[in-house]
């Protein structure tokens, strides 16, 4: 199993923390975000890792990691970054991680062993984390609904109320070559307008089964400086879960 970390963006909402480095190299609890991701993926048995780079990508390449440069990272969404790693996605099963999240190895293992061609990790207890991050969790929450058998039914819309939110997508997913080919058919030149949740929603509407795998352990996402404080507290309170 291979793993790809999408780390092309600057992370402008972090202000001067990313003036001289990409977002994935911002430290959290004594380690960069990239180091947290590498450790979790490796501990879960992901054997080869690559990073999709963009903003100040040379700083990542200097760490000896294999990289896929996203040439148009500033003009496209996360999906554009994902396309840069297409050679690996076409070749075999691959875990894909956003470059601004911290999660446990147990969550990766659950994702890797999930059935089906396409699977995503999600947090069914999302509200607790969102209350720590936002004054009103509804400001950032997206719709997330499941089918009776636990597959993705809806994702990415602005929810009318929280009854439409059965969890939150984490930015961690797993493709097989077959599901990646389905994704390429959906994209077909639309990488500038479709974001990742938009791609997943379109795949669902086209009949692609998307397994939804609950996270195993704590996690956090870093969008702004306040998220760093939240993430550091999560890591501090859950040292055993993050001890690899």
TrEMBL record:
<dbReference type="Pfam" id="PF12804">
    <property type="entry name" value="NTP_transf_3"/>
</dbReference>
<protein>
    <submittedName>
        <fullName>Choline kinase</fullName>
    </submittedName>
</protein>
<keyword id="KW-0808">Transferase</keyword>
<dbReference type="GO" id="GO:0016301">
    <property type="term" value="F:kinase activity"/>
</dbReference>
<dbReference type="InterPro" id="IPR050065">
    <property type="entry name" value="GlmU-like"/>
</dbReference>
<dbReference type="InterPro" id="IPR029044">
    <property type="entry name" value="Nucleotide-diphossugar_trans"/>
</dbReference>
<feature type="domain" description="MobA-like NTP transferase">
    <location>
        <begin position="3"/>
        <end position="115"/>
    </location>
</feature>
<keyword id="KW-0548">Nucleotidyltransferase</keyword>
<dbReference type="GO" id="GO:0016779">
    <property type="term" value="F:nucleotidyltransferase activity"/>
</dbReference>
<dbReference type="InterPro" id="IPR025877">
    <property type="entry name" value="MobA-like_NTP_Trfase"/>
</dbReference>
<keyword id="KW-0418">Kinase</keyword>
